[in-house]
Amino acid sequence: MTDQAIVIIGGGLAGLTAAIHFRKNNYSVIVIEKNEFPKHKVCGEYISNEVLPYLESLGLDIESLHPKHISKLSFSLVSGKTLNTTLPLGGFGISRYELDHYLYNHAIKIGCKIIQETVVDIEYDNEKFWIATNLNQYQARLAIGAFGKRSNLDIKLKRIFIQKQSHWLGIKAHYELEFPEDQVGLHHFEGGYCGVSKIENNLVNICYLANYDTFKKYKSIEDYKINVVYRNPNLKAIFEKAAIQFEKPLTISQVSFEKKKSVENHILMIGDTAGLIHPLCGNGMAMAIHSAKLAVGNSIEFLENRINRSTLENNYIIDWNKNFKSRLRVGRFLGKLLQREKTAQFTLKILLVFPFLLPLIIKKTHGKVI
Predict the structure, then answer these.
(1) Sign of CA dihedral 103, 109, 113, 117
(2) Long-range contacts of 357-360 (CB under 8 A, 24+ apart)
(3) pTM given for the model
(4) Could you report the per-residue pLDDT of 11-45, keeping only the tens digit for each?
(5) Of 6 and 340, which is predicted with more confidence?
(6) Domain count, the chain
């Protein structure tokens, strides 16, 4: 049995950021991650600039990773009708493979302990967390949940969202492709959306979300792409010129946009574990990073015995809702709105007449610089 003040379950973007923040404040921390580093993940790989000052405050040099600086958005519907705009804050393109590896190495360098094990159970009793993995047991005063979009732990914790079937599938790969370095493309097709943007090493990340009801009619990803995704002429042109750099695209099923609780069984949830914004909003990675900041900030007050656990949890829930609840609601609304082609076409006509509305909508799904 290992006794530890802080255990973070999950070593993705949110988990590693939280670990680095704790160490910067001289706290010992264990991160338990089931996968090896580095690892590609199904992700849009665009991060809003709103989190850059926070990352810099943690001693992280994102510029050393040679990200692509993105300031423009190109949005199109199934018909190919397109609207171009400037992103209010802008952002940068970087692969999860590169970014997570960088965060991992930095975390190790500053003294975080990262263990490759699989957490199979978490119990809370008498102000302590009892965390069982496939190999060991850990005891902690504070547990942070950063185990991603869905996990066996969600089932173990009996979280409400995991009991509902989700009909979304995520597909992603890197490509060689001539594409504007300063632009992110967001293209609608029947039953889904596709994001396209440059990342490091002059590669392009293409990630799309597909409704399983439309996907299951086809025998393979390639068949689906040709028969459904290609109906948007912009996507057809992009894929026909793109040379895939993976052996095959990565996929993730059962992607859920249902509401989640930011605290479950006294565990502070961060990143996608606390809530997943619709991909068409392009702000999931920034939200994951920001949620780490909120969780750690509140946790330090608790660890310094300035507040009790109940106040910690209430304060984190309030902060999380204040910063993200409205964004998630807008994301869900936009997702439903654009699922209907006639409604989507009507919306685009309005935006073409009043183009200043699109940046205002984008601001509704993004935060201020932190």
Answers:
(1) positive
(2) 358/73, 358/75, 358/83, 358/85, 359/85, 359/86, 359/87, 359/88
(3) 0.91
(4) 999 999 999 999 999 999 999 999 988 889 988 89
(5) 6
(6) 1
Give the pLDDT mean for 234-243: 96
Query: How is residue 5 written in tokens?
Result: 């003040």
Question: For residue 355, is the peptide bond before it cis, meaning its omega torsion is within 30 degrees of 0?
Answer: no
Residue 296 belongs to domain spanning: 2-51+91-165+255-337
State the residue for tokens 């507040």. Answer: 307
Is the CA virtual torsion 160, 165, 167, 170 positive or negative?
positive
Q: How far apart are the first and last CA of the chain?
A: 38
Residue 284 lies in a domain: yes
Rounded CA separation 163/154 (Å): 9
Q: Indicate whether 197 belongs to any domain.
A: no
d(CA 197, CA 244): 14
CATH code of the domain in which 155 resides = 3.50.50.60
Residue 162 region by backbone torsions, left for phi larger than 0, else alpha for psi between -120 and 50, else beta: alpha
194 lies in some domain: no
What amino acid occupies position 92?
F
Instruction: Match 């709105």 to its residue by tokens.
Output: 337
Quick check: 13 and 271 in contact, CB under 8 A?
yes
User: Which tokens sit at 324?
Assistant: 């993200």
DSSP assigned state of 158:
T
3-class secondary structure, 151: coil
Lowest-confidence range among 8-12, 118-122, 231-235, 277-281?
Answer: 277-281
69 in a structural domain: no
Position 331 scores a pLDDT of 72
HEC-encoded secondary structure of 300-329: HHHHCCCCCHHHHHHHHHHHHHHHHHHHHH
pLDDT classification of 340: cutoffs 50, 70, 90: low
- How is residue 67 annotated by DSSP? P
CB 138 within 8 A of CB 174: no
**How far is CA 66 from each of CA 42, 91, 107, 198, 342, rounded to the nearest angstrom?**
21, 13, 20, 11, 41
